[in-house]
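Thread: "does anyone have the structure for this chain?"

Original post by V.I.:
We have the sequence but no experimental structure in hand. Need at least a predicted one for the grant figures.
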Amino acid sequence: MPALRLGSGTIDVALHDAIGKDGSEQRYIVHLGLASEAVSGVLPKQEVRVHHVAPPAEEGSMAVDVVGSAELTFEDAMMIQDFLNRHLLEVQAEAMRDRYSRYVLCPHMARVFGDDGEVIYVRFNCAGFVVEAYKEAGIVLVNTDALPRIERARLAVAYGIVGSPRFDKLNRRYCWGLDDREDRWPVLMPGYVLHAFDRTCEEIRSAPYRPQLGDELFPR
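Reply from O.Q.:
Generated one for you, tokens below.
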């Protein structure tokens, strides 16, 4: 099912559909989550319950501008729910940890290991959380090895902190992954994921989407 930008009508949202939210720039997707329940007759900008990376990973709510669906099977939905439960439990187990240490920009996810070599928790950005949740169900939405390199000014539209004078210090402190010797980075953007959904269900399941610059907007 193609991803759909809400207009004047309503849409039915299924469990674990991708929910995209606009920023101040028209059609620029700045946040992404997964619907934590099915909701009928959703209006544009209506708040729905989602699992997302705030940070950290949590259940919260966000306004709906775009919805992406892969028409999940019951088994798909169960595997995605297992992923969500596991990472929400990680957050609870590390509740005293600074929330920004639970976040990463590039790559879209990063495992944090303890002294014994075991994974303590996994850091995500909002798009990475959605992509990895679907990967748990065997659905590879985006080719994350072939992301376009996006410049700081465009990145800051979605991630406002990137445009802050404090960003370079915070980036180094929390290991968010942007090399300060460069001016463009291969960041998985929320809009890329919605373009991945904007295909037939057969296409979504058969091959990952390869993003291009401009896909930060949905539609382009």
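V.I.: this helps a lot. The CA atoms of residues 23 and 212 lie 20 Å apart.
O.Q.: and The radius of gyration is 17 Å.
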